[in-house]
Design a protein that fits this description.
- It is a single chain.
- This protein has 254 residues and is mainly α.
- The protein has a single domain, classed as Up-down Bundle (Growth Hormone, Chain: A), CATH 1.20.1250.
- 76% of the residues lie in helices and 0% in strands.
- It has 9 helices and no strands.
- Helix 2 runs antiparallel to helix 5 and helix 4 crosses helix 5.
- The protein starts with a helix and ends with a helix.
- The C terminus is likely disordered.
C-alpha cells in the first residue's frame, strides 16, 4: 500500500510538471491563478472529502454501533438527504443577501458543528432528535456544496472556461472517491488506536472518524478567509455595504 501511495504521488508530481511546462497540456493549470477558482479547488476539495465521509460512516455506525438493521439505518439517513434537497429553495436568496465569503465562512462552521452533532448521537437518542440533527447537517452541507460549485467559475474568462471545467471535474471526482477511502481509513486507524482491530470497529471508532471529518470541514472553511467581500458578486448578485468613506466618494462623484 505504501509503495502504491508513493508511486501515485510521484506520478502526480511528474504530471504537474508536464502540465506546467508543455505549451498545450491536456489539463491546463492557468485558471489556478484566479483566487475564487483556486479556493474552490483547495478548500472546496477538502470540504467535499469531509462531507462525503458522512453517508459512508453514518449507516455503518447505525448498524455496527447502534445495532440497527439495514432498513432502519437507511431510514435514518433520509433526513440528511431531505435537508440537502430542502436547502435548494433558499440557497440563491442567501447568497444574494450575504455573499459567498460570509456564507462559506458561517455555513462551513455550522457544517462542522452538525457533523460533530452526528457523532454525538447514541443508541438511546430519540429518533426525533436524530432526524433533526441529520436534517440540519443536510441543510448546511447542501448550502456549502452549492456555494462552492457556483463560485468555481464565477471569475473564469470564456477563454479559460474549457480548461478550468476539465480540471474542476477531475478534481471533484477524485475528491468524492477519496472521501470514501478516507472514511474507511479513519475508522481503521481509530480501531488500531483503540485496540478494536480483532473485534471490529466499535461506536467509539466511528465517532472518532466522524470527528476527524468535522475537523477537515472546519479547516476547509478557513480558505474562504482570503476571499474578498464581493467575491463572485456577478454570480450571486450580492453587493456588500460600502464604508462611510466609499459612500462619501460615491456621492461626490454623483
Amino acid at each position: 500500500m505504501t509503495a502504491c501511495l508513493g508511486g501515485g504521488l510521484l506520478l502526480g508530481a511528474l504530471a504537474l510538471r508536464h502540465f506546467r511546462s508543455t505549451e498545450q497540456p491536456l489539463i491546463a493549470l492557468g485558471a489556478l491563478g484566479i483566487p475564487t477558482y483556486a479556493m474552490t479547488l483547495r478548500g472546496g476539495s477538502l470540504f467535499r472529502v469531509s462531507v462525503t465521509m458522512a453517508p459512508f460512516l453514518l449507516p455503518m455506525m447505525f448498524q455496527l454501533g447502534f445495532g440497527l438493521n439495514p432498513f432502519a439505518s437507511g431510514l435514518l439517513i433520509l433526513p440528511l438527504f431531505a435537508g440537502s434537497v430542502g436547502m435548494k429553495i433558499v440557497t440563491t436568496r442567501l447568497l444574494r443577501r450575504y455573499g459567498f465569503r460570509r456564507v462559506l465562512l458561517v455555513n462551513g462552521t455550522l457544517t462542522a458543528l452538525t457533523i460533530v452533532g452526528c457523532g454525538a448521537l447514541t443508541p438511546s437518542t430519540p429518533y426525533t432528535v436524530m432526524a433533526i440533527v441529520l436534517f440540519a447537517s443536510g441543510l448546511t452541507r447542501s448550502l456549502q456544496f452549492s456555494a462552492l460549485n457556483s463560485l468555481t467559475f464565477a471569475d473564469v474568462s470564456p477563454e479559460q472556461m474549457s480548461a478550468a471545467n476539465t480540471l474542476a471535474n477531475v478534481v471533484q471526482q477524485l475528491t468524492l472517491g477519496f472521501g470514501v477511502a478516507t472514511a474507511a481509513a479513519a475508522v481503521h486507524l481509530a480501531a488500531l488506536m483503540n485496540g478494536d482491530v480483532a473485534t471490529g470497529p466499535t461506536l467509539t471508532d466511528f465517532r472518532t472518524a466522524i470527528v476527524a471529518a468535522a475537523i477537515m470541514a472546519a479547516v476547509s472553511t478557513l480558505d474562504a478567509l482570503a476571499l474578498s467581500p464581493d467575491a463572485g458578486s456577478l454570480v450571486s448578485g450580492h453587493r456588500p455595504l460600502r464604508s462611510g468613506h466609499d459612500n462619501d466618494l460615491a456621492n461626490s462623484r454623483a
